[in-house]
Amino acid sequence: MRDDKYNLIARSVRPDSRNSQHATRNPQPVTRYRCPVTRYHQPNTENQKSVISLIKPYFVENRTKILAGLLSLIIVDVLQLIIPRIIKWTVDNLTAFEIDVWRLLSYALYMVGIAVFIGIFRYIWRRCLLGTSRRVEEGLRNTLFNHLQNLSASYFDDVKTGDLMAHATNDIQQIRMATGMGMVALNDAIVLGLAAIGFMAYINIKLTAFVLIPMPLIVISTRFFSKKMHRRYQAVQAAFSELTEVVRERFVGIRIIKAHHRKTAEALRVESVSRDYINKNIRLVKIIGSFFPMMLLFSNLSLAIVLYLGGRQTILQTITPGDFVAFISYLGLLTWPMMALGWVTNLIQRGRASLDRINKILQTLPEIRDRQDARDLAGVDGHIVFENVSFSYASKRDVNGVATLSNISLSIKPGQVLGIIGPPGSGKSTLIGLIPRLYDNQRGKILLDGNDIRTLKISNLRSHIAFIPQEPFLFAGTIRDNITFGNQDISDERLEKAVKDASLYETIDSFADGYETVVGEKGIILSGGQKQRIALARCLLKDAGILLLDDPISQVDLETGTAIISTIRKMAGSKTIVIVSHRLSAVNWADCILSLDQGRMVESGNHRQLMDADHYYAKTFRLQEIEEELDAA
Questions:
Q1: Domain 2-38+48-365, what architecture?
Q2: Is 44 in contact with 50 (CB distance < 8 Å)?
Q3: pLDDT tens for residues 593-607?
């Protein structure tokens, strides 16, 4: 039994890939998120109830399996307790020379039968208890992922990807171990331990009392070590998060590292973080390395007491030789529960530390979320109004108090085109990011068809918007999947039209696998312009009334850019379009052009008006005209 459980400790099992119905189960959060998000609190007794509530629903839902598993585990423990009795009968009969070959064979067959039943019921408790722990793992991971998707964009401005990966892998694995083998070890510590003590007391109460002398020492030492374990497990998990993030960054940036010959320096950085992780593990091992041998020491003390006092009682014929052998066998069975006390403490502290870390994320409320009275819009005309809108990123507010956008007021009528220009860092991308509520403005209002966008449901608002970010992101799948987001219902005709409108058709046709070409991580096999056009095709495929384009032709050549802008111009009048661009030829045809500088509107008007004003727009336009003429020459 003990070896069997030790094998389970060491074995690494691949997580289930099956979908879980627990994915929509969210805990009740208790704190509001505010930037910066790194302000985590240490676990305290007040939040332990909410921590336990994370896994309670899975236990309630799988209570039948858990009861069946615990019952099977108890049956296994009882069957193991019968074996020493058979050994006692055998030894007593042998020492008294009162046994024949057939009775000896019957004893052997009893043990074989018991072994068969132990194997059957051991399979059942593994299937039920360890299977339930896998359900907990699957459900928590889905819950965590769904919750992270609901958090605001500002949350991810400061949180490291490696930290989130550590939460979704290592932390949840520790919770699985605590809920799976933790239940097994706790059951054995109670049921098998008490039953073994009961059988030992049945043989000789006085000898049993001496054997149990080390037990209070186990309880005291467990309480002493558990607090230290918890703190050091948290430090280990935090170090693992840092190591994951550092290694992830180096893998993603491997081409830059090679190009700049930074292999040695980056290897040293990984080595430094890895050493810190190892050092924290070694500090933890010092505690565990003291705890488990101490459990064995107390077990061996009990064995020494049995050998001396039990041996004397056997010599004095107070107990029979069979009782003496059975007593030692029961003590051997008691060794695992005594060890399980230490192991279950180990598992619970690991699981609790991981639950605390997961709970901190699940307690985080998104800054941007639906109001209780939020409503849907069946359709939109596309009338967008900014009324004295101001916005600052939290990090910039903390550093210098300078607003990213200040007192922005504008009006875009349905079907109109707004162009936004300005030097880098002037707030262009931030401005259009406020429309789909990636961030919320701190002052002023943004209206859509006369409705404050904060009174609309976020999902409904974004369903009416097609958006291209400044940095196009591609998933590591095929071109088709990246454009359609894996939607199999999109017809080939619609897909082909979007691709042609994005001036991407000839590029895809040149690939051997066409739409099924795998683009690799972040579209690594594609050029910047090709990635940008795939993102544009993805955007054009969405039938939305509002089109937000953040520098859509920044990475394509002049001819391709002209073709893309021609496509966008054809949609003017039927869609409200907002274009951010450093290339003024992309916006000079817009109904209104807005020029930003350090978050403020410095000029606005159509192309002719801005040229007559002879400020930033006019000067930049003339310079770019000269550059384009030189490029053409």
A1: Up-down Bundle (1.20)
A2: no
A3: 999 998 899 999 999
